[in-house]
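Collaborator request log, item 7. Partner lab (contact: R.S.) asked for a structural prediction of Vomeronasal type-2 receptor 26-like to inform their binding assays.
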Amino acid sequence: MAASGQEVLESNQEINQNTEILPNISLGFHIHDSCSDASFSLCGVLSILSGQEDPVPGYTCHQRGHVAGFIGSFPSMTSHEIARLTGIYGYPQISYGLSKTSLNELVEFPFFYHTFLSDDSYFHGIIQLLALFGWSWVGILTSFDENDKMYSEELRREIIRSGSCVEFLELIPEVVSSRDKREQISNKIFKSMANVIIIHSTSSRMTFSLCSYVLKTINNRVLIFSVETSSIQSVYALTIPSTCTAVNGSLMFTIPKGHIPGFKPFLQSLNLSTFPEPSLLHSVWRNAFHCEPKPTEGIMEYCTGHETLSDFPASKYDVDHFQFTYTLYNMVYAMAHALHNMYITKSQLGESLKLEPQPWQLNQFLKRVHFKAPDGHEIFFDDKGRASVHYDIVQFFQFPNGTSTTIHVGSFNPSAPRDKQLIVNQTAIFWKTVFNQARNSHILFIIELSFSSQVPHSVCTESCAPGHRKVLDREKPVCCFDCIPCSEGEYSNTTDAENCMKCPEDQWPNEKKDKCNPKVIEFLSYGEPLGIALSSVSILLSIITALILGIFIKYRNTPLVKANNLNLSYVLLVSLTLSFLCALMFIGRPGAVSCLLRQSAFGIIFSTAVSSVLAKTVTVVIAFSATKPSSKLSKWVGTRVSSYLILLCTSGEIVICILWLLISPPYPDYDTQSDTGKMILQCNEGSTFAFYLVIGYMGFLALLSFIVAFLVRKLPDSFNEAQFITFSMLVFCSVWVSFIPAYLSIKGKYMVVVELFAILASSAGLLGCIFIPKCYIVLFRPDLNTREHLIEK
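Returned to partner:
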């Protein structure tokens, strides 16, 4: 078995001491350092397969044991090359590092297994994190490495596909010798509006390039490190300079850490006496203790031999929790479980265990391996060779003394249901805020930083508040838009609404236009000043008319009252009284009964009044003409003509009203269009033609009365009311002719007001012109109310 690291030693010892896994079979290993180089990796594989230090392709001279499979390596590009070579011989290979999507091709790599993938499933973690905090305007920094550029371009496409936008994708060179070039890159990032920047790089040197000149200008931005970038820092134990304050508070997608039972004392027990010969441990000691394991002429001192990892604080070298070490530990167990299952199957089939198994035979058992890791997480591979893993999200903090720490704030599990993939503890995150800043040579430097719980914004345009809608500009990205208030009668109750919705007819948007409120129902009520005034005038005029009727009844035997056709006067006065009272049906909340009766009742009653006026005029004409010798009209003198005339003329109006009520009767209705924010409760006339026919018929009777009265205006005053009737009909016609254009030009309750004014004015015109002069004579000039005076006149 080929792998790398001290964790292989621990897991190998555990497996060999465990009687439940591979009993009577010892599991060995061979560690080869690939140096993150494809050529070194291939040489290592060939060396392991041939059993010689100098690789000999196609030849093996292993004295003991057989190669079962390979674990490694960490960089994806070396894993890719190893998979091409080991696949030829059918050896299964498990990569414990990050693998590119192309490695999922089962046809090209049928024996390759992944632990962590760098593909669209991982992209969703970053995209969901952006969506969670409402970050729709971001930037991406990456290196000039071809794989990094390809990854970043794909990430940008996925972000755009999700509805967010990428303001810039900037390639950061590892080394920039030109100061102008450094300032050009720094100023471009500084002037950007993106407050969230995603950093992706598999280059171990890029972090130093970022800290040296790029991140100095963006201390107040939120940085998100990809799994690759944070993993590079972890694997190569790269220390971020303490002056690089921009990284403070950054979010990192990382490989989950895990505890390996018994590994801590194992590591702390290691010293140079354990491995006196040159090994990986010697390299670790040089980096950790800055000493040489063996005497050399180098500049470092010779190690004492008593150095152990227990001398290091946990913040600098954590021996309790591991990332790739833990993954590698689990993959060794995965290989061991697969070997165990294969040997059990061979035993059950009666095959000799001494026969050398073919490497490709292990593949089908590795596909079906399923066991629990020490932390309880189940380890297995899907049909594409991907292990069931998840990613941690941590927040990185570095202190002035050079130490650093990470706080676990969430996780991302690509294999979980969509709504449960991303889990973030938002209360555990501390966001950076600028506390003090200074500018030097056109570059902004953050002197002090503070942290708060307020989530920073990173949008091209702030979200459109409810009551507005988004209007996109074709020349700008979809994240940049204008917010336009909703039009009259429309509302939006969500942020970033693309369209406003119309309120129901009985509702109207509030001032903010974020919801619809019931419209105010308006009608001419008795409680408002206009309603009070009109109802008071109506009642007052009806009382005056009733008093005049009482006067005529009281003085019915006087010559003046007798001379004016007493019965017709009674009919006219009663009709006018009812006409004034009809006005009250137009005031108040319209109902089914009031709408049905008010126009018809007024039309019939007022037609009776006008018919009475016409009968008075015709009676005067007949009475005067009958006095001539041999007049044929003498037989028509009396009350029958006037009664028939009133019945005939009123019957026409009654027929019109009955047909109206039968065919298209009036009904209560709401006018929702005339007034914004209000709903006018009114009587819909049902048939507009019938309504104007009723008015027109009254006008016809009035015009006929006016013509007859005008023709007989020169008769003796004693018997003639023609002048007063002429004036009354002139008032009536003037009022109703003015009524029509006024009625058509207004809406709402003021239509009722105009009609009420016409009713009261025309009725008052009849009352005033015909009866007021007579009442004056009866009450105040009794000397004129004598037969002698009338004959004299």
